[in-house]
Amino acid sequence: MSTNSGEQRRQLIDEIMLQHAAGDITLGVAIRRLRLEVTGFDQETFAKMCSMSTRALYQLETDKANPTLNTLDAILRKFGLRLGLMKAPAPGQTSMALAPQPHMAEPAPGYKASSKASGGVTRGSKPNRATRDKPTTGKGR
Fold first, then answer.
1. 53 close to 47: Cβ distance less than 8 angstroms
2. Does residue 61 belong to any structural domain of this protein?
3. Domain total for the chain?
4. By residue range, what is the domain housing residue 23?
5. What confidence score (pLDDT) does residue 55 get?
6. Residue 28 — pLDDT band, cuts 50, 70, 90?
7. Contact present, 8 and 37 (Cβ < 8 Å)
8. Structural domain contains residue 69
9. Left if phi > 0, otherwise alpha if psi is -120 to 50, otherwise beta: which for 121?
10. 119 domain-assigned
């Protein structure tokens, strides 16, 4: 168990929650940070607490899983959190649910947002069939 005081744990939870709501970290990263920074538990111990396998927790924390809402809710409730809906912010604006945070005002230097609409290939994505089958030079088939 982590040696943080109750107030320090609440501050960590709030910080992680705000970073996730702002889109700065993924759900998996948020859960991993909650587990490590708030509880200090290893994956095996925390997975047992959540009635899930260590592999399932690993996949969730690395954003490779597709957990059920019940699974997410059970994990988040251990930190006094719950699933909910919030209005998505307009492009370039911070979520209405978030208080202005100076460290979240601008992306980190060197950050480049990727966009599927621009046709760019992002990590882990595959070109769609229409793009993949088109010749890159010369006449068509």
1. yes
2. yes
3. 1
4. 6-87+98-106
5. 97
6. very high
7. no
8. yes
9. beta
10. no
Q: What pTM was computed for the model?
A: 0.62
- In this structure, the number of other CB atoms found within 10 A of the CB of residue 38 comes to 19
Q: How many CB atoms lie within 10 A of CB 65?
A: 18
Residue 78 domain flag: yes
- What is the chain written as a DSSP string? -----HHHHHHHHHHHHHHHHTTSS-HHHHHHHIIIIII---HHHHHHHTTS-HHHHHHHHTT-----HHHHHHHHHTTT------PPPPTTS--TTSPP-GGGSSPPTT-----GGGTPPPTT----HHHHHS-SSSS--
How far is 67 from 52, CA to CA, in rounded Å?
11
Residues 6+ apart with CB under 8 A from 86: 21, 95, 96, 97
pLDDT at residue number 85: 82
pLDDT digits over 38-79, tens only?
Answer: 999 999 999 999 999 999 999 999 999 999 999 999 999 999
For residue 128, the one-letter residue type is: N
CATH number at residue 66: 1.10.260
